[in-house]
């Protein structure tokens, strides 16, 4: 099922905090070039758990055949879903998982941070969605109008780079540096960078400079 353009823009806009989580996913089996695509949302369970239960119960799921799964998530997994994902992958070693996220879910929570870190170190690729991923999702998952295949929502790179910076901190075991606040009266989302010495010492300068919010000395090593 292809989702509607407004649904894609609403769910995957990194500047907005929608409550509903959306998952777009692709599955490839063995050496086959065929790609199976579908989408999912939260129910009484998070969308990640719904996916795991669904694929494990499908008749075509054969644990002995290699399987590549690509997720495009509007929110990163919470710590409980991260644990469920690791358990699923441990039970099915022939499955590889790549996760792209539009936002980080409650990234200040230590358990959520540890969950993402554990996922990464268990072999799961986790990245923030950038222009190529948005374009790919628009072309393959969205019911766009005829002639609008190249008209995907191009979001300002600032928010994308800020989330990418914070994800780097999570994976590297650094404290949070991205602070997000909401003004509920006008629904404005405010992003602030609060950097400590450890951030300057351990984060490559090009990642910091990509945010456009800080300037480093020319003599930086």
Automatic annotation (TrEMBL):
CDD domains named in the record: cytidine_deaminase
Q: Which cofactor does it need?
A: Zn(2+)
| InterPro entries tied to this protein | APOBEC/CMP_deaminase_Zn-bd, APOBEC1, APOBEC_Cyt_Deaminase, CMP_dCMP_dom, Cytidine_deaminase-like
Where does the source fall among the domains of life?
Answer: Eukaryota
Q: What is its main location?
A: cytoplasm
Q: Where in the cell is it found?
A: Cytoplasm; Nucleus
| Broad class of enzyme this protein falls into | hydrolase
Give the E.C. number(s): 3.5.4.36
UniProt keyword annotations, A-Z: Cytoplasm, Hydrolase, Metal-binding, mRNA processing, Nucleus, Zinc
Question: What is catalyzed by this enzyme?
Answer: a cytidine in mRNA + H2O + H(+) = a uridine in mRNA + NH4(+); cytidine(6666) in apoB mRNA + H2O + H(+) = uridine(6666) in apoB mRNA + NH4(+)
One GO term (biological process): mRNA processing
Q: Which terms in the GO cellular component ontology are assigned?
A: cytoplasm; nucleus
Zinc keyword on record: yes
Q: Which GO terms describe its molecular function?
A: cytidine deaminase activity; RNA binding; zinc ion binding
Q: Which residues form the CMP/dCMP-type deaminase domain?
A: 1-119
**Family statement drawn from the similarity comment of this UniProt entry:** Belongs to the cytidine and deoxycytidylate deaminase family.
Subunit organization: Homodimer. Interacts with A1CF; form an mRNA editing complex. Interacts with RBM47; form an mRNA editing complex. Found in a complex with CELF2/CUGBP2 and A1CF. Interacts with HNRPAB. Interacts with SYNCRIP.
Q: What does this protein do?
A: Cytidine deaminase catalyzing the cytidine to uridine postranscriptional editing of a variety of mRNAs. Form complexes with cofactors that confer differential editing activity and selectivity. Responsible for the postranscriptional editing of a CAA codon for Gln to a UAA codon for stop in the apolipoprotein B mRNA. Also involved in CGA (Arg) to UGA (Stop) editing in the NF1 mRNA. May also play a role in the epigenetic regulation of gene expression by participating in DNA demethylation.
Name of this protein = C->U-editing enzyme APOBEC-1
């Amino acid at each position: 099922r292809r989702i509607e353009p407004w649904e894609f823009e609403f769910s995957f806009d990194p500047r907005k905090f929608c409550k509903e989580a959306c998952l777009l996913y692709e599955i490839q089996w063995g050496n086959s070039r065929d790609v199976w695509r579908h989408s999912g949302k939260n129910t009484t369970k998070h969308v990640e758990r719904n996916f795991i239960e669904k694929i494990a119960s499908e008749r075509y799921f054969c644990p002995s055949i290699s399987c590549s799964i690509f997720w495009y998530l509007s929110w990163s997994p919470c710590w409980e879903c991260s644990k469920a994902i690791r358990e699923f992958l441990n039970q099915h070693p022939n499955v590889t998982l790549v996760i792209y996220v539009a936002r980080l879910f409650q990234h200040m929570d230590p358990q959520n941070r540890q969950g993402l870190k554990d996922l990464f170190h268990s072999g799961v690729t986790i990245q923030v969605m950038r222009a190529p991923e948005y374009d790919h999702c628009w072309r393959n998952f969205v019911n766009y109008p005829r002639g609008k295949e190249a008209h995907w929502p191009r979001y300002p790179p600032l928010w994308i780079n800020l989330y990418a910076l914070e994800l780097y901190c999570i994976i590297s075991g650094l404290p949070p540096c991205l602070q997000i606040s909401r003004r509920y009266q006008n629904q404005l989302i405010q992003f602030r960078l609060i950097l400590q010495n450890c951030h300057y010492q351990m984060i490559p300068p090009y990642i910091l400079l990509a945010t456009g919010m800080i300037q480093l000395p020319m003599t930086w090593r």
